Amino acid sequence: MRGGRLKLVSILAGVLFAGLALLAWTQPWFDLVVQSPQGGELRLTAAGDVAAAPLSALALAVLASAGALTIAGRVFRVVLGALQVLLGVSIATTASVALGDPVRAAGSAVTDATGVDGDESLHQLVSNAVATPWPAVALVAGVLVAVLGASVVLLSGAWPRAGRKYSATRLVAADPADDPAAAWDSLSGGDDPTGGSADEGVDGDDDPLRRPDLPGHDR
Question: Distance (Å, rounded) from C-alpha 65 to C-alpha 72?
Answer without folding.
Answer: 10
